[in-house]
Amino acid sequence: xxxxxxxxxxxxxxxxxxxxxxxxxxxxxxxxxxxxxxxxxxxxxxxxxxxxxxxxxxxxxxxxxxxxxxxxxxxxxxxxxxxxxxxxxxxxxxxxxxxxxxxxxxxxxxxxxxxxxxxxxxxxxxxxxxxxxxxxxxxxxxxxxxxxxxxxxxxxxxxxxxxxxxxxxxxxxxxxxxxxxxxxxxxxxxxxxxxxxxxxxxxxxxx
Length: 207
Description:
Strand order of the largest sheet: 7-6-11-10-9-8
Oligomer: single chain
Largest sheet: 6 strands, antiparallel
Number of helices: 4
Order of helices and strands: HEHEHEEEHEEEEEE
Structural class: alpha+beta
Helix content: 25-40%
């Protein structure tokens, strides 16, 4: 069923993001010898990341500083930060891990997870075999964060129900023309850290 497909893919996406979190913990936990060891840990992750020594926190944006401070207050955890639009044109989820060098907390590493890559490669959400012009999206509130290019269709889902299947009126813009259609939508929750997102599988609904 459509709901079963949504549940399976939500669980898979959640496991993938948690797996990324676990890899960050494995690569950056423990006492490092020096900053070279920190950089080597970042390289092992094959993700975009940067080491932020405590001397440089004055250069951080507000959200980066908040993520930095939360990570240093919870040194044994990988902190899940915000999902933000990047200058490169995709949504990214940020995570952070405190770094200890020779027994002293010296800073934090910030990792950027490209959500388009996760959508397209790891989960294969773009390749689901759906009927009735179906597609899969992931929402953060009312913002489509996966895939990022779906923003171009200006989708507006009227509300988000609890996990389950609903029939909803969806507003889309196609070639500059607004249209309203009935959709069958299966939702399921993706939880990462303390944050929750909603995976939706959407199909045209034939009356």
